[in-house]
Amino acid sequence: MGFLLEIVRLGLGNLRLHMLRSILTALGIIFGVLAVIVMSSLGEGTKRQALAQIERLGAKNIIVRSQKPPETQNQQGGQQRSFVSRYGVTRADLAVIRENFPEAEAIVPLKEVGGQVIREGMRRTSQAFGTTPDLARVANLTIAQGRYLTPSDMDERASVCVIGAEIARMFFPLEDPLGKSLRIDTKPFMVVGVLGPVGLAAGAGTALVGRDLNLDVHVPMSAAREQFGDLVVRGTSGSMQANATEVSEIYIALKDRDRVIIDAERLRLVLKNRRPGLPDVALIVPYELLENARRTALTFNLIFGAIAAISLLVGGIGIMNIMLASVTERIREIGIRRALGATRRHIMWQFLVETGVLSAIGGLIGVGVGIGGSLLVGWAVKDMPTALTLWSILVSFAVATVTGLVFGLYPAKRAAAADPIEALRHD
Question: Range of 217's domain?
Answer without folding.
Answer: 61-253
